[in-house]
Design goal:
The complex is a heterodimer of chains A (112) and B (115).
Chain A (H helix, E strand, L loop, with lengths): L3 E4 L2 E5 L4 E7 L6 E6 L5 E7 L5 E4 L2 E5 L5 E6 L8 E8 L7 E3 L3 E6 L1
Parallel strand pairs in A: 2-11
Antiparallel strand pairs in A: 1-3, 3-8, 4-5, 4-9, 6-7, 7-8, 9-10, 9-11
Chain B lengths: L3 E4 L2 E4 L5 E7 L6 E7 L5 E8 L5 E2 L8 E7 L2 E6 L8 E8 L6 E3 L3 E5 L1
Parallel strand pairs in B: 2-11
Antiparallel strand pairs in B: 1-3, 3-8, 4-5, 4-9, 5-6, 7-8, 9-10, 9-11
The chains are: A mainly beta (112), B mainly beta (115).
């Protein structure tokens, strides 16, 4: 079965610093999704990547999918306390399905 | 605004009680919804796929008789935890895709605490 590994597991950065979170799949990804979750709350959709080499940005967050479609990265520029939370990558469990599997998660803390 | 509504957000009840959690899609129809469970400091684990008008599909290791799923309409799926025990305490969250090739949108989750 497909597995998604995220690194690092946790990250503590000072406000204004840049950071990167990685998501690696054991199999080729059909669709890769990034979500943010605050403790005890639902998931907020950030970005969806489907094509090898694809890159998307929204405000200070950029997500990339490598050409082989097995690894994705999420980069935050000039981090702010509002970026704190748990970042989860999710992937379609197989082709033409809406069923998602999730990565292990990265807990981000941003201190002033 | 939210596109998937989940209710209740918090439940505390005695052991042996059955608890129903609702998941509604707002302003769109969802023939399929998904139910996840999340333990503290862990990722989401898919429990089952809720299918409108037919039986739910459960993931391996999930007890069908324990976690009853009903998808009676195109905008509502319910998860009933039957005869809940302390080990069922967890954060339950639902999701629904807005359409083909669209991302899943999630409810705000339900924190279930069984005493």
């Amino acid at each position: 079965s497909q597995e998604l590994e995220q690194s690092p597991q946790s990250l503590i950065v000072q406000e204004g610093k840049n950071l990167t979170i990685n998501c690696t799949s054991s199999k080729t990804l059909y669709g890769l999704y990034w979500y943010k979750q605050k403790y005890g709350e639902g998931l907020i959709f950030l970005m969806m990547l489907q094509k090898g080499g694809e890159e998307k940005s929204h405000e200070k967050i950029t997500a990339k999918l490598d050409e082989k479609k097995q690894q994705s990265s999420l980069h935050i520029t000039a981090s702010q306390p509002s970026h704190a939370g748990i970042y989860l990558c999710g992937a379609d469990s197989s082709y033409n399905t809406d069923k998602l599997i999730f990565g292990t998660g990265t807990r981000l803390q941003v201190f002033p | 605004g939210a596109v998937v509504s989940q209710h209740p957000s918090w439940v505390i009840c005695k052991s042996g009680t059955s608890v129903k959690i609702e998941c509604r899609s707002l302003d769109f129809q969802a023939t399929t919804m998904f139910w996840y469970r999340q333990f503290p400091k862990q990722s989401l684990m898919l429990m089952a796929t809720s299918n409108e008008g037919s039986k739910a599909t459960y993931e391996q290791g999930v007890e069908k008789d324990k976690f009853l799923i009903n998808h009676a309409s195109l905008t509502l799926s319910t998860l009933t935890v039957t005869s809940a025990h302390p080990e069922d305490s967890s954060f339950y969250i639902c999701s629904a895709p807005m359409g083909s090739n669209q991302p899943q949108h999630f409810g705000d989750g339900t924190r279930l605490s069984i005493l």
